Amino acid sequence: MAKAKKAETKEKKELTYEDYSKAVLLTGFVAAVKNELAKGENISAVRFVPILDGYHIFFNKDIKECKIAVEKRKLLAGYKVRTLEDGFKKVTCSLKSKDDYEKVIAKVFGYKREKAKKKK
User: Fold this and answer.
1) pTM as predicted
2) pLDDT tens digit at each of 120 positions of the chain
3) Of 54, 55, 93, 115, whose Cβ has the fewest other Cβ atoms within 10 Å?
4) What own/partner pairs with CB < 8 Å and gap ≥ 24 does 61-67 have?
5) What is the C-alpha separation between 17 and 2, in angstroms, rounded?
């Protein structure tokens, strides 16, 4: 009989504040997109696919196949959000903080927003 090897303990990596903040930002944005998709009409076949350092969200709107790709930016902080319809790029924007949720969702789903007044 072969001897059973003892399981070696792996080193535990500590979670940094920066990693935690990025995870909260990503999950919050995905939850906001989920709420928008639930409100939408003619939306079907919704799939959320986690990837390394991001998320892909697939859905059908009317007869178009749509994809929202949320991927970590390599050089700068935050995430890059891209929208594709039938394989063609439609919108690209960046997500850096929770304050950007509303702006990015409005761009991704094509909502009209009032422009903020500039302070003089």
Assistant:
1) 0.76
2) 566 666 677 777 788 888 888 889 999 999 999 999 998 888 889 999 999 889 999 999 888 899 999 999 888 888 999 999 988 889 899 999 888 888 999 998 887 766 655 655
3) 115
4) 61/85
5) 45
